[in-house]
Design brief:
Elements (H helix, E strand, L loop, with lengths): L1 H18 L6 H20 L2 H8 L6 H11 L8 E5 L5 H10 L4 E6 L10 E4 L5 H11 L3 E6 L9 H22 E12 L4 H11 E7 L10 E9 L2
Parallel strand pairs: 1-2, 1-4, 2-3, 4-5
Antiparallel strand pairs: 5-7, 6-7
Helix pairs in contact: 1-7, 4-5, 7-8
């Protein structure tokens, strides 16, 4: 609720900035987007975790973050049912599928395509669409024990735009977790310091018995990224 309110206040702010000429329209957005992408590519090229991921045949460095959190907090157990939000290119999916085997279930969703590991139900779709959300809930066929979310919007490099996009995604993910989880379930979600993270924490605190913030070693020290682990869902 607080996250939705925050999105409602940011979008009009953007409109006002556009009117006053502080945002010069699509050209500026595209230039900032290109700059953000260039910065990202440079960081990737020098990142030891990216090399480590390649050596282990993992599609991304993101897997190391989940690996650490899952091991520390015993997130995976054989037979669990997991919903994964924002799964491509599939690093987390592989860990989750291995962690719940045998007899476990993983439903993964992303708007980008990926090749899912054997036994994983992958849904390609945008979580902003009601049709995708329904497909995901149908595929789960029952309540999930754990929802893991590594969703990230495309960064534009413009703080207000990135904040609005992140707030909207987190709010979608929190809503999806509330629909999917059974009593006592857990929710792991990526957040960015300052980008709606306080509103997200309040929402989680109102729905789960225990909420903690985590910064795994593979998460870049200078980045605003961290994770909330919310446990003990109370429907
Ligand atoms: C950081 S990546 C996930 C990496 C993944 N955890 C891994 O280990 O390979 C974030 C993903 O969120 C997805 N995403 C962002 N917004 C989305 C949306 N509205 N619906 C579905 N997927 C979305 C992106 O397509 C992207 O693949």
């Amino acid at each position: 609720m607080a996250a939705q309110k925050s999105a409602r206040t940011i979008v009009p702010r953007l409109a006002r900035m556009a009117q006053s000429g502080k945002i010069l329209g699509e050209t500026v957005l595209m230039a900032a987007g290109r700059k953000a992408k260039r910065r990202w590519a440079q960081t990737q090229a020098h990142d030891p975790w990216v090399r480590r991921a390649r050596n282990r045949g993992l599609p991304s460095r993101a897997a190391f973050k989940l690996e650490e959190i899952a091991a520390r907090h015993s997130l995976f157990k054989p037979g669990l049912s997991i919903l994964e939000l924002g799964s491509a290119p599939g690093g987390w999916t592989r860990l989750a599928a291995a962690g719940v085997a045998p007899r476990g279930r993983v439903v993964a969703v992303d708007r980008l395509d990926m090749v899912p590991p054997a036994g994983v139900c992958f849904i390609r779709g945008d979580l902003a669409s009601a049709q995708t959300r329904n497909e995901v809930l149908m595929a789960l066929s029952g309540k999930a024990d754990l929802v893991i979310c590594d969703l990230a919007p495309n960064l534009t490099g413009i703080r207000d735009v990135d904040e609005a996009n992140q707030v909207e995604l987190s709010s979608l993910a929190a809503e999806m977790a509330e629909l999917a989880l059974g009593d006592g379930g857990s929710f792991l979600i990526k957040a960015f310091m300052g980008l709606g993270s306080t509103a997200l924490e309040s929402r989680l605190a109102g729905k789960y018995r225990n909420v903690r913030s985590l910064k795994p070693a593979a998460s870049r020290a200078g980045s605003k990224e961290f994770y909330f682990l919310a446990q003990g869902y109370q429907p």
